[in-house]
Amino acid sequence: MKRLVVVSNRVADPGCAQALGGLAVCILDALRKRGGLWFGWNGEIVPDEAEPETTSVTFDDLTFATTPLTEREYRDYYLGFANAALWPVHHYRLDLARFAQEAIDGYRRVNDRFAETLAPMLKPNDLVWAHDYHLIPLGAGLRARGVRNRIGFFLHIPFPPPDVLVAMPEHEWLMSALVDYDLIGFQTRTDQANFCRFMCDFMGGEMIGPDVLRIGAREVTASVFPVGIDVDSFAAMAESPSAAKRIERLHRAGEPRINVIGVDRLDYTKGLPDRLRSFKRLLELYPQNCKAVTLMQIAPPTREDVQAYADIRHELEALSGEINGQFGDFDWTPVRYLHRRVDRDTLAALYRGSQVGLVTPLRDGMNLVAKEYVVAQDANNPGVLVLSRFAGAAEDLQEALIVNPYDADEVANAMQKAIQMPFAERKERHAALLERVRERDAYHWMDGFLRALAGCRVPMAA
Ligand code: GDG
């Protein structure tokens, strides 16, 4: 089996990969099995004057090679271009995108530095797998340094329609860099179709097979590999005696009789203000829910150095305060909003103790919370998933109640339907969802991608 080399913006700390969740665990597993190298940022930021050094630690056949970012790299590459330009553009939010030349230059420089550091570590037969929007030009950087290995790229976030993408300065440079990968993986058919349309309409590409594009002298395979979760370990967490104790405590707290749960990084793509407005509509349209239903929203902080994230936080605090002030009572708080990270076992217990899982992003690559909620349910008395049609997960999870997150009344009606759903229907929908989530778990995603990458034709000479 070929050695696997994973490159991602952040490298998981092997000590706390469990806390990071399914994907990190599953990638670590593959690296251990095949022997491998994981390369990327270690999360540290050093002063600009410092020379960022790469350090390696090896356990058995697995090496972690990590480097810090300088303050300037962090500002320009990570905050400036990746998170203030690429992230909003890829989530169809041109209104929030900020384009600055220093940021684009910083992004180019860090990708170049990563390629320069990684190239000499590669062996001829390694399979190289780069992850996500931070590293779009990494493959091109490696090719420029003579790397002939098979190199794959997986985009965890959506690929926007061409008309949105072309509004981004330097999109041609960025997209032409993708052509140096052998395999590009997307979460959904929509993302794959947007990408192929862009390559054909704007970059002179042509489809020469269902998933294969020819662009100039290069052939690139663009396929769909929906990300999944590690089903067995998450189910075990949700079914554990400690989870049962936590659920009991949740119910003993007196309120609520019915619990609706939302779990999202505090990100504007997750549609949190719209979700709160929908919950408010639920209380207005169906006042019998007052004193009976509580929305528990876990929203840990993220990317707080980007302005749009500070804005969304204020909006959310104002809205939850408004709803609690208007509808709450001495013995009932309609919205319980926690702006902090909770541990993974607690999450599993909260999902299991909630009759409704509310996953309503405005746009999302996949959304693993939807899958976690399904897996955490008690199959003999499952809750109901209300899912945005704009989450990648909706392509597969059609037995959820699929909603338009921009339409507060529609989401409120779906919540009400979920609350009142007869037992037989709940069970039937849940069984279908669970089967799908189980079928397409994290291992299925990873094996599918790596098999396709290994099967790609050896890159042509430049
Ligand atoms: C990107 C794409 C795609 C959340 N709060 C806490 C916590 N979480 C965990 C969840 C879940 C993960 O974080 C979030 O994953 P999502 O998929 O929902 O969203 P992103 O972070 O935006 O991930 C997304 C994903 O990449 C994978 O390809 O699905 O579309 O945007 O696992 O449970 N975990 C803990 N405490 C929290 O407070 N422990």
UniProtKB/TrEMBL annotation:
<dbReference type="GO" id="GO:0005992">
    <property type="term" value="P:trehalose biosynthetic process"/>
</dbReference>
<dbReference type="GO" id="GO:0003825">
    <property type="term" value="F:alpha,alpha-trehalose-phosphate synthase (UDP-forming) activity"/>
</dbReference>
<dbReference type="InterPro" id="IPR001830">
    <property type="entry name" value="Glyco_trans_20"/>
</dbReference>
<dbReference type="Pfam" id="PF00982">
    <property type="entry name" value="Glyco_transf_20"/>
</dbReference>
<protein>
    <submittedName>
        <fullName>Trehalose-6-phosphate synthase</fullName>
    </submittedName>
</protein>
<comment type="similarity">
    <text>Belongs to the glycosyltransferase 20 family.</text>
</comment>
